[in-house]
Design a protein that fits this description.
By secondary structure, the protein is of the alpha+beta class. It has 3 helices and 5 strands. It has a domain of 109 residues. Strands 1, 2, 3, 4 and 5 form a 5-stranded mixed β-sheet that branches. A hairpin with a 6-residue loop joins strand 2 and strand 3. The radius of gyration is 24 Å and the shape is elongated. The termini are far apart.
Length: 158
């Protein structure tokens, strides 16, 4: 799980056979350190994705018809409530994909210091100060320069 900045992925997955289908259910937990999107300082992140997937053998299950709105393999009625469906070769079931996908779905698109430390009152101010130092956005009097993001802007020729 180096792609997520951590080797600390734990969990419990249960695989059950339902005829030609394999149902995978369980919980995962990941603790990682990711850079803040604003100041780049490493901050902790903890996720607890829930896994629920049905794997169907490629050669044993017919595809849904064109009238069906959903894609993927046709499932028996008792498995229709499982949110994710996939296919496997009917011999070996590799759970790496469902683990990675479950983490990716839960992974926040943006993570800042304030998300990691919401109860610390000075977190946002410290993060802003680190960002200002990285961006060189302070004026001579120490205040933030509101025009700093435009420093590299060059008007287009029209």
């Amino acid at each position: 799980m180096e792609a997520f900045g951590s080797d600390d992925v734990k969990g419990h997955l249960r695989v059950e056979r339902h005829g030609k289908h394999m149902v995978v259910r369980g919980n995962l937990a990941i603790n990682a350190q990711v850079p803040c999107d604003r100041c780049t300082q490493l901050v902790p992140i903890s996720l607890s994705p829930v896994v629920a997937c049905v794997y169907s053998s490629i050669d044993a299950v017919p595809e849904r018809g064109e009238a069906d709105l959903a894609g993927g393999p046709a499932l028996p009625e008792e498995l229709e409530g499982v949110p994710d469906a996939s296919e496997y070769d009917g011999i070996a079931l590799n759970l790496a994909d469902v683990v990675v996908e479950s983490i990716q779905v839960e992974w926040p698109p943006r993570w800042v210091c304030e998300d990691a430390f919401p109860d610390a009152p000075s977190t946002d101010a410290l993060c802003s100060a680190r960002f200002a130092a990285l961006a060189g956005t302070r004026l001579v009097d120490g205040s933030l320069n509101p025009f700093a993001p435009l420093a590299g802007w060059k008007p287009g020729v029209s």
